[in-house]
Amino acid sequence: MKSYFKINCIKIKKKKIKVGDKSLSHRSIIYCLIKNCIIEISNILESLDILSTINLCKNIGIYMYGPINSYLLASSLKKKNMKNKISYIGNSGTTIRITLSLLIKNNFVIGDKSLNKRTMYRIIKPLTLIGYVLQCKKNFFTPIIIIKKNNFGLKYNLVNSSSQIKSCLLLSSLNSFFKIFLKEKKKTRDHTERFFPILKKKIKNFNIKIPNDFSSISFIISYNLINKNNFILNLGFNKLRNGFFEYLLNSNLKIFFIKKKIYKNEHFAKILFFKFFIKKNTIFSENISKMIDEIPILLLLLIKLKNKNKIYGLEELKFKESNRFLSMYYNIIFLGVKIIKKKNYLIFKSKNIHNNYVKSLSDHRLFMSFYIGNVYNVKISNPENILSSFPSFFNLFNNKKNNYYVYK
Ligand SMILES: O=C(O)C1=C[C@@H](OP(=O)(O)O)[C@@H](O)[C@H](O)C1
Ligand SMILES: C=C(OP(=O)(O)O)C(=O)O
Questions:
Q1: CATH, domain range 214-405
Q2: Quick check: 241 pLDDT over 60?
Q3: Which string of b and e fits 37-61 if b means at least 16 CB within 10 Å?
Q4: Could you give the 3-state DSSP secondary structure of residue 202?
Q5: Pocket of ligand 1 (CB under 6 A)
Q6: What is the ipTM for the molecules in this complex?
Q7: In which band, very low, low, confident or very high, does the pLDDT at 134 lie, cut at 50, 70 and 90?
Q8: 125 FRET partner, CA 20 to 30 A, in 144, 292, 338, 401?
Q9: Which catalysed reactions does the entry list for this protein (predicted)?
């Protein structure tokens, strides 16, 4: 009663936000490749990365209706007979990494300029140990084609903390007689594992409701914290993905859980956020895998809130849409912030930001982070990047003070 009374006394900004979780949207679609079933997905993310997965599945022979109004219906009860197809998957690393083991032989997967420069060694190596024969470009770049598939067992130490590699191997073992044992150095998001009990059920009809994407919501959280607003948000709440949230809590963020529920093994929450003072300084490497996609916005939030900070364990940032470790470093330096780069960590001390240009390359999180960092008078390149994960971004934050330019 006491807390309800307090909530009624503070000014709250409410806005209905619908931005389905990217990781869960990818996974819900590809379950049709594993099981013969009909899947109805609501609040699916309608972004370019998800359209890449949809495209790939259609190419393999899955019937699909949508996405329309964040709704998608997929059926694999009767498959079209399509072989030797070429699937273009844009710059979606998750699409290729989690579906590769499910593809049939002689299907080509090709990405855009940025994906074609991201090494696929991290999945090709373990898949080859399982018995796959794959062909790809020099340096393990896409296009990739599966020549032969054997599914032997495997005991594998995941040296890279990556949920994409883990999911790829787990999914490859699904239709196999042999077992796969994986050891993770650091725990990573477990959406794939959470869906396994549901897949084992003998029903042919699933309904999946996808929660809002915590990574996209982190931009909204940061924007409101910078502007000192109280606000309520609905979001997905996976404990292996809420490192950004835990960091804010440890830095004295005050929150109140209005609602919590579990649906199909995934956690949903409605949270009221209010009051925030930064207290903490160092972020250690054991926390990074839980906030891997939120690092760019966290860096800008800390810079904006005038803080001195160290962030360790950033090696995995080098394998994203851009080498985020370097691209964040160079862009921040150009804005006049004192920042020191060591092998895998950054130390920075914030101060007022200069006017300058930011190159977001082909990286959606870079564009959105610098935009929310509210660095007025800074020109940010390639606004079209937002289409990868957050197409409604400009509906929520069009402050007309930021400028863009196109960099080719
Ligand atoms: O499994 C997933 O859906 C993802 C895992 C993460 O990548 P890594 O597995 O390479 O860390 C994350 O950065 C990506 O946006 C989505
Ligand atoms: C790294 C990301 O995605 P992907 O690997 O699917 O390109 C991301 O969304 O930040």
A1: 3.65.10.10
A2: yes
A3: bbbbbebbbbbbbbbbbbbbbbbbb
A4: coil
A5: 23, 26, 94, 162-164, 167, 189, 292-293, 316, 319
A6: 0.98
A7: very high
A8: 292
A9: 3-phosphoshikimate + phosphoenolpyruvate = 5-O-(1-carboxyvinyl)-3-phosphoshikimate + phosphate
